[in-house]
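FAQ: What does the model actually see?

It sees only this:
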Amino acid sequence: MWERRAPLGPEHVRELTKQGVKVLVQPCKRRIFIDEEYKNAGAIIKEDISDASLIIGVKKIQPENILPNKNYMFFSHVIKAQPANMSLLDTILQRNARLFDYECITKDGRDDTPRLVAFGQYAGMAGMIDGFQGLGVRLIADGNNSPFLNVPFSFMHEDLQAGTHSLTYSLTYSLTHSLTHLLTHSLTHLLTYSQGEPKECCKSNKQMQFHRAIDLCVHWSRECRQRSPTYL
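And it is asked to produce this:
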């Protein structure tokens, strides 16, 4: 299992503990933040969190782990009556627990207003990285080398900037000379930006960097298709 996300970062824990809130954090070696960071922020590291009145997670919790009479906050994926998750909802009701689903937290608390907690944009970015990596695997299986094979999975990157650098590096390292001249303009702007040298046409925005890397990959992919229409 490669899940590394955390519902709260050490800086959030520090803000809560300063206000007198007791924060319990379960130990985990996979999480993007190490236990010591939470401990330094004032959290108590312990496996047993049964003393907590509110338990916060990212994705759904297995039904057997739901504690009676507790408050939970996570993405449960039950709001649309998804069949695979109805056992979780049944358990929550049976054990008299209360669920605060991120999908239901909206502006002004109305169904027709924007959600305030959403991972869609970053999930899309991670999906694009994994998509290009998967494309590289498919191409090499067909005997075609490509720069996408050198793109690590999204969970292997520490942050968005690392993902952007990974896409940029893989392309610049692997692109053949015959393709480079087609991408010189876009590549120059992307490389200058990713190295932290300001350009008048760009603002310092990490998401803009990422989208430029994606655009570059899309351009390369289209060029591959034109050269070999059956490569997919």
